[in-house]
Amino acid sequence: PETAIRRDRFSGGPARGFLSSLAADAAIFEADLAVDRAHVVMLAEQGIIEEDVAGEILAALADVEAAGHDALPDGEDVHEAIETAVIERVGPDGGRMHTARSRNDEVAACIRYRLREDVLAAIEATIALRESLSAVAAEHVETLMPGYTHLQPAQPTTVGHYLASYEGAIARDTGRLFDAYDRINRSPLGAAAFAGTPFEIDRDRTAELLGFDGTVRNSMDASSARDFLAETANAFATLATTLSGLAEDLILFANKGYLDLSDDYASTSSIMPQKKNPDTLELTRGVAGDAIGEATGTLSLLKGLPRAYNRDLQRAHAGVFEIADDVTEATGIAAGALATATWNVEALATAAGEGFSTATGVADLLAMAGLPFRTAHEIVAAAAPTIEDGMEPAAAAAIIDEAAREVLDEPLASYVDPADVEAALDPAASVAERDSAGGPAPVAVEAALSD
Ligand code: ARG
What we know:
single chain, 451 residues, mainly alpha, two-stranded antiparallel sheet, 19 helices, binds arginine, amino-acid biosynthesis, argininosuccinate lyase activity, cytoplasm, EC 4.3.2.1
């Protein structure tokens, strides 16, 4: 029976290797065994195959599992190879396993079964990263740092506020993975090639045995649909894009001396003995490129495919499994690098005030004193070029006063107490003032973190 099966279905010839997905199918070996078991149990329960035949097939599957993927006989794919291995053990009755199904619904079930594990692992990693971001943020609600726009010093903020911003982004990325999970976790089994089957199967039973939340009902949809792969790849690409931004920031902060990575997450140079490089974060940043490529590649492969099954689909999932692993690993690396890094509080505090970063706070103060915001902006903008890093607050306030006299024809003191202007030039005061919901003030960040 063994050679008859192989000769009939997989002729070989020069295209043999090109046709075969057996090696890549190692990723769905366990899934296929689970799918086979559920199908065989359902067939027996429905009286479609004899119970003792089902028992023999299940015993053979256990044996095939113990031998492992590498021990499978040759075949076009893992589904065929496992069936051949079952028939080798059971005899021709082993071929009853493939009653009322096709490799088309079988492979779709295997991909979903495997991918949902990957997505759950990713969700665990994103939750751990969120915990790490929140924990470090909570320690640093008072730690000043420069905030940037256009990578130029913009306004002072805190490390806590900065990290909480990424916690929010990763929370949405986690939500996208949950959404993808919902649509992955439906059983296509029972669709057969695409046109269903005349056997009295119970699709809901195989779905239940495999832990799916119901079925993809339309049989043509069930065997052809791979939009869940595109959705999942995009969810991973979006998460990886968030991680790449976080990694880029941390690389820059390390470069400026604001942050020390722990040695566990740094690397050195084979030639320059003094170097401590942020390689783990660079690789994290790099993973986004692969993930985006995979998301694009998946859509490109699916675009324009006619209904129902086409062999192109064999190339659609392996890359998604790969980026799922890579992005999940990068998520863990980001969490570890963050949890073990040291923030250089003093360097950050100095930098937080550089580049006249409190200018907006001074303009806000003048606007609160009754000047139109645009006029306040004009006064502070006129003063800005002359205000230098490290200048005494009184000196800076005098420059602002001079600018006000030019713009308003009267001293600033007619609007606001000069002491208040000096206070507004202090980065910590500027941050503390910004207590609007979700803002950087320590009270606001504490409130956000305990939400
Ligand atoms: N290995 C194939 C896949 O991954 C399943 C085989 C279905 N083959 C077929 N000729 N219909 O899509």
